[in-house]
Write a structure and sequence with these properties.
This protein is mainly β. It contains two helices and twelve strands. The chain has helices at about 55-60, 130-144; strands spanning about 15-20, 25-30, 30-35, 40-45, 50, 65-70, 70-75, 80-85, 90-95, 100-105, 110-115, 120-125. The N and C termini lie far apart (about 50 Å). The model has no long low-confidence stretch (mean pLDDT about 85).
Length: about 140
């Protein structure tokens, strides 16, 4: 990538790129996948085998999942830094609200916090975040 002053911002060693969030791109080459934050003009060193770009925009503007080897991580889409590792490779996060993620494992849904701790075991066919109820739940957790 070259900026408006014709300065190379990202070296010409990547085979492809895809938009990840409103601020970042996924760059791919034979070594793996890295995240470039266009807003900051920084190519982050964290490298993955794959980064999921298929999540809804409101999720991608904050987090997504990435895999490396047989491990899957929730990562910050603007830096590529690992937020936490998911318990199983086939697990996923589908949405979030404040510091909670809707967590999917074996086709069932539950809730996970921003540190990767399972708050509600994935045993539901669907999780709909009802904000007033969730706000009460979060307030109760914070008071413990």
């Amino acid at each position: 990538m070259i900026d408006s002053l014709n300065t190379t911002v990202v070296p010409f060693e990547f085979d492809s790129y895809e938009r990840l969030s409103d601020r970042s791109f996924v760059l791919k080459n034979y070594k793996g996948v890295q995240i470039f934050n266009a807003y900051l003009g920084i190519l982050f060193n964290h490298s993955y085998d794959k980064v999921d770009i298929s999540k809804p925009n409101y999720v991608l503007n904050k987090v997504t999942t990435a895999s490396k080897g047989q491990r899957k991580y929730v990562i910050d889409t603007n830096t590529g830094y690992e937020v936490f590792q998911l318990p199983n490779y086939d697990d996923d996060i589908t949405s979030y609200y404040k510091d909670l993620f809707v967590y999917k494992s074996h086709g069932k849904y539950g809730l996970m916090d921003y540190k990767g701790r399972i708050i509600i075991e994935p045993k539901f066919d669907k999780v709909t975040i009802n904000e007033p109820e969730l706000a009460k739940y979060i307030k109760r957790i914070d008071s413990l």
